[in-house]
Amino acid sequence: MREPRFTVREAKAEDVHAMLGLWAATPGIGLGVGDDEEDLKRFIARNPRTCLVAWKGGILAGAVVGGFDGRRGYLYHLAVRKDYQSQGIGKALVAEVLDRFREIGARRVHLLVFTTNQQAVAFYTRLGWRLRQDVLVASWDCEPGKDCGC
């Protein structure tokens, strides 16, 4: 008997625990500030159309979260369970989220990948993403009482 195909749908609050578990188990995904259940639920509530999960036979096979700032789309934490890779799940999640970004008016989408995550770099390159060499990413953790130095 043939194994059922996967289903892609919008992420819900009840998916958050499984999503965080998937990301924690996926090499190359960096979890940090803002990657907890409450913050992820808030992110999904702000970006319901661009946070997606792929389910296959009752198992979370893949997930991606996307955010839109009114100009650009941003992809974060695309992951597919190791035992479900090479079945088109990652590609389907990216295609669906890009369609949704187009629908809401994004003209460009950015994503962040650790330079050490060569599997992800190769995946996105195969899909036609352009690796940028002209920008750097700088981060600031907004901790209570932390002086910004301004």
Describe the protein in words.
The structure is a single chain. It contains 4 helices and 5 strands. The chain has 150 residues and is an alpha+beta fold. The chain has one domain: Gcn5-related N-acetyltransferase (GNAT) (Aminopeptidase, 3-Layer(aba) Sandwich), CATH 3.40.630.30. The protein has a 5-stranded mixed β-sheet, with helices on both faces.
Span between termini: 64 Å
Mean pLDDT: 93
Shape annotation? globular
Helix-strand string: EHHEEEHEH
Main sheet strand line-up: 1-2-3-4-5
State the CATH topology. Aminopeptidase
With helices defined by DSSP (H or I, 4 residues minimum), what is the helix count? 4
Q: For the record, what is the CATH homologous superfamily label?
A: Gcn5-related N-acetyltransferase (GNAT)
Per CATH, the architecture is 3-Layer(aba) Sandwich
Helix/strand-derived class? alpha+beta
Q: pLDDT below 50 for ≥5 consecutive residues: which ranges?
A: none
What is the CATH level 1 assignment?
Answer: Alpha Beta
Organism: Syntrophothermus lipocalidus (strain DSM 12680 / TGB-C1)
GO molecular function: acyltransferase activity, transferring groups other than amino-acyl groups
Protein name: GCN5-related N-acetyltransferase
Pfam family, one: Acetyltransf_1
Topology:
Elements: E1 7-10, H1 16-24, H2 37-46, E2 51-56, E3 59-68, E4 72-80, H3 89-104, E5 108-111, H4 118-126
Parallel strand pairs: 4-5
Antiparallel strand pairs: 1-2, 2-3, 3-4
Domain N-acetyltransferase: 6-149
Protein name: GCN5-related N-acetyltransferase
GO molecular function, one term: acyltransferase activity, transferring groups other than amino-acyl groups
